[in-house]
């Protein structure tokens, strides 16, 4: 069975023999951070933090670490609503349209690129399904992504990028002994260590994947696959744009099962970074039948 769902890969043959308090681990962490910075032009002053867990965990860690409330845009959509619930759960939701904003960079439930107000004084953006097809704005204070979607590494490492100026609005390391406190990850990472036992094979796989990663190739691949499917899905059933192709129509059960199509609300979704080009040729033929 082909899998055109959100995770690009699910198997690895990697194995490491070192532990997380060793010099080898410190070297792995340093190389991973520097490679991520170089690939995506992250400023040297910004923190790049790696959490063993999903993009949802990364988003909740931000919500738990904030010391100022944020207003959430796009709550009429699924993932915007989730972001709102994270912030509310940690008493960091502002129901007023103030100067501090959070939003989802790409709302997969509608295949829709989102944006916040250009004049926001503080910004937190969930880029879990957007990045790196869509790139973060250098002016943002905090953004999140994940290893296992467009980057193509194994599930799952959450990634949080924090601008230096944003730390004044986050908990200090001493203020909360919690694995959701981003300041603890920052402090330990400065020592080449994690605050807890990490998933070393996943970090190693992410480093290997990033070393070979080419964003231009990814963007061209996604655009080509979208164009291919758009040839056989009528415009009225082809919802949105970007790296997730949403089909608002009935799809035969055998096609759903064969290609691992992802169920949305009254739709089926194809995550265009997953699978091989041949899979899309076959899916196009099946949708045309």
UniProtKB/TrEMBL annotation:
This is Uncharacterized protein. The lineage of its organism: unclassified sequences, metagenomes, ecological metagenomes.
